[in-house]
């Protein structure tokens, strides 16, 4: 009986909001309304009819720094923007965490990395992150003009903090966008994300 109780407790703990509400490929992407660095609310639905990339970020994470310090993430953001793709960078770090960044600090960090997202958004209560099942920084999602998810998971296949690995990595986000924009199905639509756990 005791063993059964423990097993049930573990199962229940695994069914967190991030798991229970996580989206699936081909399903509608949950809408959200989040403030940007100037505290202006922005909704995902504001960009209906466009491709949208969602990127979860935390500047203190060495996996995030790998992709920004190498120029990989800013370059990908720039490529997406040039193809009329909306790129939204989301920080779900809890304000009580030592890793939380104020809007001014976050914007300064992004500027220093020459980042090019459409907007940097704050998900302070974690509601948007949980709705998407976002677990790591980075965690990436691609949404098509119909508002459906066509990719979710890791940015690439090199699960390391070494910036040099970017050169030989298969970039899943770039591939998903290229295939989708060409009217083709996404070959690799879902992968397991890697990085630091989001500090909800």
Describe the structure.
The two termini are 33 Å apart. It contains seven helices and nine strands. The model is unreliable at 1-21 (pLDDT under 50). The strands form three sheets. Strands 5-4-3-7-8 form a five-stranded mixed sheet. The chain has a two-stranded antiparallel ribbon with strand order 1-2. Strands 6-9 form a two-stranded antiparallel ribbon. Strand 1 (33-35) and strand 2 (41-43) form a beta hairpin. Helices cover 31% and strands 17% of the residues. It has one domain (22-197): Glutaredoxin, CATH 3.40.30. The chain is globular. The protein has helices at 2-14, 17-20, 62-69, 72-82, 103-112, 127-132, 172-181, and strands spanning 33-35, 41-43, 52-56, 86-91, 119-122, 136-137, 140-143, 149-153, 196-197. It has 200 residues and is an alpha/beta fold.
């Amino acid at each position: 009986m005791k063993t059964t109780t423990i097993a049930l407790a573990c199962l229940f703990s695994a069914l967190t909001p991030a798991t229970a509400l996580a989206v699936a490929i081909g399903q509608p992407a949950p809408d959200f309304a989040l403030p940007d660095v100037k505290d202006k609310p922005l909704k995902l639905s504001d960009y209906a009819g466009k491709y949208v990339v969602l990127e979860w970020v935390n500047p203190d994470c060495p996996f995030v720094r790998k992709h920004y310090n190498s120029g990989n993430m800013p370059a990908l953001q720039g490529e997406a923007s040039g193809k009329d793709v909306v790129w939204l960078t989301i920080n779900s770090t809890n304000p009580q965490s030592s890793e939380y960044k104020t809007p001014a600090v976050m914007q300064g960090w992004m500027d220093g990395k020459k980042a090019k997202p459409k907007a940097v958004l704050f998900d302070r209560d974690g509601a948007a992150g949980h709705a998407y099942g976002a677990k790591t920084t980075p965690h990436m999602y691609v949404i098509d003009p119909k508002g459906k998810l066509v990719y979710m998971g890791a940015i690439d296949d090199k699960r390391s903090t070494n910036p040099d690995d970017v050169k030989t990595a298969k970039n899943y986000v770039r591939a998903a966008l290229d295939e989708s924009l060409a009217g083709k199905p996404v070959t690799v639509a879902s992968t397991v994300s890697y990085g630091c756990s989001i500090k909800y």
